Amino acid sequence: MAPLAQIVDVGGLIEVIWASLLAGVGICVVFALVIVGYARAVDMSREDRPVAALAYLAVMVIAFAGVLAMAAFGIAVMASK
Questions:
Q1: What is the pLDDT of residues 14-65, one digit of tens each?
Q2: Which string of b and e fits 24-59 if b means at least 16 CB within 10 Å?
Q3: d(CA 22, CA 53)
Q4: Pick from 46, 73, 44: nearest CA to 59
Q5: Per residue, what are the HEC states of the chain?
Q6: 46 CB contacts (<8 Å, ≥6 apart)?
Q7: pTM given for the model
């Protein structure tokens, strides 16, 4: 019977595991910033604090651009394989 290291590329498997964990956690955190930014912007606009609302809106837009960029990068990586 062949050793497991000869059957499975353990280094490649570990690379896939850490990359998927990093990508999964990363995109969840950035999307959470989108949600928080929107919620806070609405709260600040209700409290008549337009500067704070604009700042939170900017956070939301930048985070959403990050989510789109991460999704596009993931699709590009999958398409190139």
A1: 998 999 999 999 999 999 999 999 999 999 999 999 999 999 999 999 999 9
A2: eeeeeebeebbeebbebbeebeeeeeeeebeebbeb
A3: 31
A4: 44
A5: CCCHHHHCCHHHHHHHHHHHHHHHHHHHHHHHHHHHHHHHHHHHHHCCCHHHHHHHHHHHHHHHHHHHHHHHHHHHHHHHC
A6: none
A7: 0.80
